[in-house]
């Protein structure tokens, strides 16, 4: 299998993405995860540009335990008015301690004249002097030919001259950059083919995604002989982002027969790495992202589900486990009987002799979705429906009544007060609690009521709350759908409620969330539930 080396620039080019800001500790954590994935190079930053990147390299040398990757520091060619040995930016690259260095230089004559305002030969001298000096100081050097494809199209000879200057100075790699992201895949292929004829150095590709072609352009370059690929996890980067390594890696490994990770086991870490980068960067994962998205192998239509249950190859181009993802069968108004049967089986429910019950439940779900419920994004509520209808549900508490009032105080301002009555293990419980708004008050009151019986409830909390108005034309009489996301620190689950009353919809989702959590705990055989009940009776 042909080998392609990955240079991940999530920590450098990726941080230029709008809305992304990483601390030094964040960058160290991501770097360790990228090494765990198995990339060959990790571009950590621009040490002459800011103190954060300087600190990153200082700490990285002491704190990171890299098994697969080399650290790479990024910088530019020396300034026109000095030598490489005297240029502060170039010296900062050596001081970073990184064993490999990326040097970016101009390859488009338009930029040399307009951005640098120097002669073309002076730019070639800057490239040659910088790379030669760094090589003489024992570093591996990767030359990034900025705007190479635009430069080649406008002035082929000069663009190639910049690559020759880098190669003759000893550059280990010359990377062709589609910096503006405007080149088409057929152009990439043609130009890389030409470069291979003219330049003897090893070739890399660095593509941007301004035309939604970052991945396609990267693969086109590889098919024509590029053996180093630059990109970022999830495609984050300036403007429309960089070529997405979360898509490039499996395409190389599984579609093109190009090895870019140490083993098949490393490939199974891809989804985990993608979601980890989102978590640390405080980004919402793109659920429809190929290969690693939550919806990448989600099946909703009844015909599709019926087919994949017989043979997954009918509607899946790869086995999701190869990239660390999982197959999901959704239940919605588009579902068929097979969707629901598969979902029930996955929950351990025996539906062999319950075809009619499953059919009735399917109709109930379709009716509920027609009323505004959405169970794709609230699988915990969906699971409760299945268990209640098909067996295995044990009611741990039931609601008698709930009421919320707004409290106005000249001293403390406004707050909400919730009053609830419920039955817990045959006992009537009454609870009153204040809160910052009606939902918070209801949450506090429900916790207060059931905490003595189920102290494990203290380990869970709400993490997200979304309200969507359904049928806006109905104005204030419109229904609302409330989605609540909860966690106990390890698992995350979502529940849904629908009503013309936002408080009622929120209450429904809130009760489902706690009911689902306690049901999961009970299914796992957790003895805290039984012990808590005994303690409550004794008191």
CATH-level-4 superfamily name of the largest domain:
Aldolase class I
Tally of alpha and pi helices: 19
Percent of residues in helical segments?
A: 40-55%
> What is the domain tally?
3
Mean pLDDT: 88
Rounded to the nearest angstrom, the radius of gyration is 29 Å
Low-confidence stretches: 526-539
CATH top level label of the largest domain = Alpha Beta
Q: What fraction strand?
A: 15-25%
Provide a descriptive summary of the structure in words.
This protein is α/β, with parallel strands linked by helices and 539 residues long. The chain has three domains: 280 residues, Aldolase class I (TIM Barrel, Alpha-Beta Barrel); 77 residues, no CATH class; 142 residues, Alpha-isopropylmalate synthase LeuA, regulatory domain (Double Stranded RNA Binding Domain), CATH 3.30.160.270. Helix content is 42%, strand content 21%. The protein contains 19 helices and 18 strands. The strands form five sheets. The chain has an eight-stranded parallel barrel, surrounded by eight helices. A three-stranded antiparallel beta sheet has the order 13-14-15, covered by helices on one side. A three-stranded antiparallel beta sheet has the order 16-17-18. α8 packs parallel to α9 and α17 packs parallel to α18. The longest helix has 22 residues. The C terminus is likely disordered.
